[in-house]
Each structure stands twice: as structure tokens, then as C-alpha cells.
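Annotated sample (chain length 240).
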Amino acid sequence: MFHYDGGLKLTSIDLAIDFRRRQPRGFVSHAHTDHMGRHELAFCTPVTARLYHHRLGKRPVHEMPFHETLDWNSLRLTTLPAGHVFGSAMLLVEDGSRRLLYTGDFKLGESATAERAVLPAADVLVMESTFGDPRYRLPPRDEVVAELVNLCRTTIAAGGAPVIHAYALGKSQEVTRILTDHGIPVQQHPLAFQISQIYESLGCSLGSVSLYEGVWNPGAALVMPPRGQRSSWMPLPIRR
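Output written by the structure step:
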């Protein structure tokens, strides 16, 4: 059903899975740069297609909405929500006798912006394991959210500007929705704001969010990509 050729490929249809290097046909589980390439034809969910085009330019795409099947030669392909970022997908592959599930990056449990992950039964499981090492013991989400919100409120009350560094796609939108749900408006770095506009256009509301252009709105939290802290043209506010 599958083989390894610098990455996972479905043998009978020569479909490359989350390859960064260009392929004739490539499945893109989500629009983070370490999972996509400039393929001749990409297969992904409609949300990922929009984000893929935004990041890599207009390219041929075959859209695969969640839960809809694509019959291709002897295989049946189905995308399922992965819970990682908005539009992220697992790929279920069936050949009539076996079921293979490729997870891509995935997250179980609650998310403010991503569809909740769906886990079907499978005979073969190929999974991402970013935090699979037993030494990782992440605190409960509710505790982290409460700590984040409290830190932002305390900083704002003291006349400061809370600055949260988060990746432009996924983390920025997640933290933005968390903060706006708690009554804290957000200003975003342009890289994150462009992606947030795509989220909004596809029905994922982020609340009170605006573009940060170097002028801080008192009372707002700032969401910046990690590299944004080194942008001399994008000054961060100094506590008064």
C-alpha cells in the first residue's frame, strides 16, 4: 500500500504525503511550511487550499472536503479533521482489506480555531509524534489559558503592552481567539493578520482583532511571530 522514498508515498497512485520537495502529486495535511511543497498537483482540504495558495502562490489543487471519499484506482481516500490548525487533515487510506491512517500533525481535545480531531479505526497508523517523548508532560489547557489571560490583564492594568510570540499560522489565531473571548482586544503582526483575514473569510471568527502597524492601542495585547521580535521596522511599545 505504501513505501518510503525520502518520505511516505502511496505506492499504487504515487501520491507523496507531506513532502517539502516538489512532487507530481502531493497530499498536504496542513499549510505549515514543513509539510508542503510546490507540487504539480496538491491534494488538501478547502481551507488548506486557501492557505496553501496564500503561502506558495496559486497552484493546481484538488480539494478534499472532510469526510468525503476519493476513489483512486484501488484506493479510497478520506480526509478527517486533525485538530492541529484550521483545516488540518488526517488521511485515511483503504484498499478493501486494510486501512492506513496518516495523522500529520494532530491534537486531541479542545481548540478555539481548529476542527476537533476524528480518530477512525485503522490497521496501520503512521503518526507525527512531536511531543511523543515521555519527558513531555504538558499542563492542562485550562491552566495555561488562565495564566495567559491573567498575565495579559495584569500587564495592561500596569500600563504595559503584553506581547505574545506565536507562529503566524495557527498559534497566532488560537491565542487571539482565546484572548478576545476573554474581552482582551488583539493587534497582530502583518504576517499573522493576513492569515487571520483568511480564517475570517472562511467562517472562523477571531473576535476583536486588528493590524499592528507600529502604534499600540492601549488595552490591547500584541501577537507577533517569533521572528517579529527582531523586526526593526516594526517597533514594539515600551512600558510607560
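Annotation: The chain has two domains: 2-126, 141-230.
Annotation: The CA atoms of residues 188 and 223 lie 5 Å apart.
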